Each structure stands twice: as structure tokens, then as C-alpha cells.
Amino acid sequence: MAEMIWLVPLLPLLSSVLLMLGSASFPRLLVAVLGVGSVASAALLTMSIGMDFLADPQPFQMTLWTWMQVGNFSPGIAFYFDGLTLVMMSVITGVGFLIHLFSTEFMEQDSSYARYFAYLNMFVAAMLVLVMADNLLLLYLGWEGVGVCSYLLVGFWYQNSANGQAARKAFVVTRIGDTAMALGLFLLFTELGTLNIQGLVGAANQQWQVGDTLPLIACLLLLGGAVGKSAQLPLHTWLPDAMAGPTPVSALIHAATMVTAGVYLIARTHGLFLLAPTAMMVVAVIGLATSLMAAFTALMQSDIKRILAYSTISQIGYMFLALGVGAWAAGIFHLMTHAFFKALLFLGSGAIIHYLHHEHNIFKMGGLRSKMPVTFWSFMIGSAALAALPMTSGFFSKDQILLQAYQLPGPGPWLWLGGLVGALLTAVYSFRLVFVVFFGEAKTQTEGDTGWRMAVPLVTLCTLSLIGGYFVIPLDQVFPASSGDHPAHWVEYVSISVPLVGVLLAYLIFHSGQLNVSRLVNSSIGQSLRQFWHSGWGIDWLYDVLLVRPYYQLSRIMKGEPVDAVYSLIVALNLTFNHWLAESQTGRMRWYIASMVAGLILLLTLALQIPLEAV
Amino acid sequence: MDGLNIPLNHILLVSTLLFSIGMLGLMIRRNIIFILMSLEVMLNAAALAFVAAGAHWGQPDGQIIFLLILSVAAAEVAVGLGLVLQVQRRFKTLDMDDANRMRG
């Protein structure tokens, strides 16, 4: 089966090209069959390849052809397959398939049905190339490919210019990170002479010592790319705005797969990061800071998709924390479980938005529990997993991250404490969402619950969110083993109980009302803090003042072409002189004669001034 | 040298006067025929200066130049009168200001 691996990205790509070429003439059913079928067959292929791999876990490499040959630089269109690739491919094709199926119902009324599936298939193909690439250049191709698809899908409803704005923002902000990453690739190639990931890590370990400057710079540049793509501080501002796209897109691209590409990149090049402990510390600190910042912000949002967006940022922060403390497997594990439950939550919110006439404000919902039972249970399970309640998938992965963070010598317990605060906030905001949307009294009319094409993905993802924690992912060969010893029992008990406290808090505040926080909220400090957190810690405002507006100002100045002004001045002077001289050309002959005489007299006078001796 | 001996300065003065009269005529006359006549006066003023200077220094060059000026003046009159005829036909006037077709 393994030699069929090239078919996995090819199938969605082919379907995407077909849909683009024939989009106008294809009937809707054909579009849906092509779009969903290609991803479904890719998922089946992945599954069978995975079965073979699990029976005989041998990583393998497969070169299709040499991409280009320049001097000693010859990157191939080549795939590398190991446990990490398998996990990523399963998430992309599996969750991708469910989201495609969901989309067939969600986008049913949309006039650009074929365009939507063409983009979505292209995204799946690019994402697969990203995770299967055996060298960093091919990875970068996929990396940019998913960026383009993200841009196209965020601005899918381009008739509304705000959506175009959001798409541009997403593209430009990630571009900043991508530039850093490209610089990192240049540095790695000039220093190590190869971009093949396995060869690269091997060469790095031979040439560099732990703590050298070069691996630190290289890792920080790669981290720049990861930070941009994964929406971490300080490049996270694009993700909340990217919610302008259709909700299944948010589920697939901006929750389950693309935004975790940064996590994948760092995990894939962990051999490099192990050489730069400082860079790993930076990863951990960025992850923790982002996760706390986003959790506070999520607590104050009222748009259902923005809550989920900030929660995604926060959860990816956890993954970064895991990578930073060297808990590679835990980070990837959380990536997988997060893909399940966050896709579930996004699809659930998509169902709500779909049946509530594009209502996004959670305070205008309420009481949906009895009207949309499938969605309600999806949200319950998804939020439970997000809040890491015991026995859900999120519990296992987050617990691993926190425990391994605690074990890090030095700042470990502090990271653990920060993570706990984040976990508490996560529980509060996710159940705030559940209580506000599904309980209380109904405020809007719905058109009933989901159809089967929405229900099947929701139920499947519910199951995965519940049992995903019991999956054993084959990462032992990929990452160095973490220390086997466990911390004291109380650490574990605290980790388990914190989310429960969070849920209780959310219940008391947002459902039963027994804990009245209105005095706290309405005090002046409460109000300003609320405003501050609502705006995402004012970071958007800060960037607007520091970067966007000066840039616009500069472009307004440059619009007048100040460099050309010098040349324009010469032209203007010439024109003026020309004008003056043209004035003198009157055609009046007597004037000409008079001026000639005047000139003659002038010249003669001047000539007579010169003393004779000088001649 | 026999006969009346006029100092060179006096002749040059007359020549300058003639030249100035011609130039003034050129500048203030509007009729093209008078303009041509003024030109003729100026040429003759120059010719007079040449002849006088030639006589003063005892050189033949002055008289040679005078012959040249004479033929130039003849040619000028031939061309000039041709132009006068054309101007008269085209503009029905000999006034040079009226014949101006520029709108500068």
C-alpha cells in the first residue's frame, strides 16, 4: 500500500483542478461527489497505509522526481512517512472528510458551490504536501499553498468588502512569519548544505553544539514562521478576523489543520530545537503567554465564532508550551485531540449559525437545547473536551502537557501554574458559551435541527472527542522519550480538579446566577478591564497605530511620487521658460527689429566697457 | 590728394546718421515699401563708411566691398519687390502689422 502514498495528495488536487475547470457546467450533485469523494478516498488510502505502518512501523522515504537541480542543491518532490506524518495525514484527511461532508449541507444555498469545493480540495492537497514533504522546500510549497487557500476561503464571500479586508489581513500577517521562515531556510541551506529534514537534523547535530548561536538563530527564524501560521503572539491578530469565511472553513483551516502547521513544523525539526535550549524556552513562553492572553479575550467575546477563534489560539498556545518543554508527543497528541473537539465545536456553531439565519451573537441565542438536540450534545461534548473534563480526549492530552511542563527543571512549576490558570479560564469560557447559547429562554426562531449530512460529522466527531484520548499514536520512534517518572500525586489531582472548578464557576455565574459578578463587572476597573480584554488586549489597536496607519500615511505620501518631483520641477521650469519665450514670438516684425536694435545697443555698450588693452 | 579734403570723422558721422535714420525707419514704418527703402538707406550708409575708410587708408578693399554691397542691394530689391507683390495679393494691404497672422 505504501507505494500508493503519492495518490493521497493527488486525489484532492485532481478534483480541485476538475472543479475549477468545469465549475460552471457541473451539476451540484457531481460537485459534491467529486469534492467529498476525493477526500474520502484519500482518507481511506491513508487508513490502509496507516494499518500497514502500524503492523510494521518502518519510516520510509519516497522520491517521485527531482524538482530542480541547481549546483549541489537538488530538492525532490519526495515524501517522508513516519508516525508523525501518519497522525497528521489522518487528521487532515479524516477530519477533512467530515468537514467536506458537513459543507455539502452548509453551503447548499450558495451560488458558488463548485468554487467552494475547489478551494477546499486544493487546501487539503496543499496541507497534505506540507506534512508529507521530505525536505523543507517542498514543505514551504505546501505552507504557502495552504496560505493561499486560507486567503481564498476567508474572502470567499468577497462581495462584502470586510471579508476581503479580513482575507488580506490573514495573508499579510502570516506573510511576515513566512518571510522569517524563508530566511531560516536560507540560513540552514548555506550552513548545512541540505534542506532534507532528516539529513538536516543529522548534519546539524554533527556541526553544532548544544547552545551555539547559529542553531538558535535558525530555530528563532523557523519559530517566526510557526508563530505566523499558528496565530501565536505577536502575529495572532489575523485569526479572529479570519472567521469571516464560511464556518466549515474555520473548522478545517482555522482550527483543525492549517493553524497547527506551526506546531508540526517545530515538532518535525525538533532535532534542531534540541540544539537551542533558549529557542525552546522562547517557544514555551510564547505558548503560555498566548494561551493566557487568548483565554482572557475569549471570556469577553460575544460573537460565537470569535470565542472559538480565541480558544483555538489559546489551545495552540498549549501545544507550543508542550513543544517548548520538550513534550513533543504530548504536543502532537493535543494537536490531534484539539482537531477533533475544535472541529466539532466549529461545526456545531456552523449548524447554529446556519439555522439561526447567520446570527453570531450568543446573547441573541439561548434555549437551543431542546430545539437542536444534536447540536446541543455536540457542544456539550466539545466543550467538555475543550475544558479537559476527565475522561474526554482533551483531558488526556492537556494533562500530559501540564505534567510534563511541571517536570521541566527550573521554570517548570511556573509554566505549570500558568497552564492551570489557562485551563481554568478555558473551562469558564467554554461553559459560558454552552450555558448562554443552549440554556435559559429562547430568543430566536430556528428552522429545526441539522440534516443527516450535518449530523453524521457531528456525531462522528463527538465520538472521536470522547474516545480520542485512548488512541495510542505511534510517535515513539519520532521523538526522544520523555522521562518516565511521575510527579507527586497532588500535582495530578490539582490538574484534574481545576477544569471542574471552572465549569462550576461558569454554572454559578452564567446559569444559576448564584454568583453575582455584576458589581465587579460594572465597577470602573471592571469596565475598563472588560473593554481591554474584549479588544484582545488592544493589540490590534497597537498594530493599527504603530504599523498600519504610518504605512497608509507613507503610501499616501508616496502616491504623490516625491522622488519624481525633482524631475517634474525641471520639466515645469522648461515649460515656464517656453511660455515666456513663446510670448515674445508675436509676429510683429517691428517688435523684432526693435528688440534686435536694443540687443545690438546693449552688446555695443558692453563691448565699449572692455578696455582696449584687454582685446 | 587733390580737391576737397574732408576728414574721415565727418564722413563716418554722416554714415552713422544715415544708418540710424534707416534703422529708425525700419522700426517705425508700417508700409513694407518704406521698410525696404529704409533697408536700402542702411546698406548705403555701410557702403559709404567702407568707401571713406578705403580712401583714408589708400586701400582698394573699401571700393571692392562697395561693389559687393551694390550687388547685394540689387538682389535684395529684386527679392523684396517680389515679396511686396505677394503680400499685396494675399493680404490686400501693404501694412505689415495688418499682415500679421500670428495670434501670439
Characteristic key phrases:
heterodimer; A: 615 residues; mainly alpha; two-stranded antiparallel ribbon; 2 strands; globular; B: 104 residues; 3 helices
Work out the radius of gyration of chain B: 17 Å
Report the sheet-strand fraction of chain A: under 5%
User: Rounded to an integer, what's the Rg of chain A over CA atoms?
Assistant: 31 Å
Determine the N-to-C terminus distance of chain B: 58 Å
Q: Give the strand order of the largest sheet of chain A, numbering strands 1, 2, ... along the chain.
A: 1-2
Mean pLDDT of chain A: 85
Task: Figure out the total of helices of chain A.
Answer: 25
Structural class designation of chain B = mainly alpha
Largest sheet of chain B: none
Shape of chain A: globular
Report low-confidence residues of chain B grouped into runs of 5 or more.
Answer: none
Distance between the termini of chain A: 105 Å
Percent of residues of chain A in helical segments?
over 70%
- Sheet/helix structural class of chain A: mainly alpha
Detail the poorly predicted runs of chain A: none
Give a short overview.
The complex is a heterodimer of chains A (615) and B (104). With 615 residues, chain A is mostly helical.
Structure characterization notes:
By secondary structure, chain A is mainly α. In chain A, strands 1-2 form a two-stranded antiparallel ribbon. The longest helix of chain A has 32 residues. Chain B is an all-alpha fold and 104 residues long. Chain B contains three helices and no strands. The relative contact order of chain B is 0.13. Chains A and B meet through helix 24 and helix 25 of A and helix 1 of B.
Write the layout of secondary structure elements.
The complex is a heterodimer of chains A (615) and B (104).
Chain A lengths: L6 H16 L5 H28 L4 E7 L9 E6 L1 H24 L6 H20 L3 H19 L6 H32 L4 H11 L5 H17 L8 H4 L5 H10 L4 H8 L1 H4 L3 H24 L3 H21 L3 H28 L17 H14 L6 H15 L4 H27 L13 H16 L21 H24 L5 H5 L1 H11 L4 H21 L5 H20 L4 H21 L6
Antiparallel strand pairs in A: 1-2
Helix pairs in contact in A: 1-2, 1-4, 2-3, 2-4, 3-4, 3-10, 3-15, 3-19, 4-5, 5-6, 5-10, 6-8, 8-11, 8-13, 10-15, 13-14, 13-18, 13-22, 14-15, 14-17, 14-18, 15-16, 15-17, 15-19, 16-18, 16-19, 17-18, 17-20, 18-20
Chain B lengths: L7 H21 L3 H26 L3 H31 L13
Helix pairs in contact in B: 1-2, 2-3
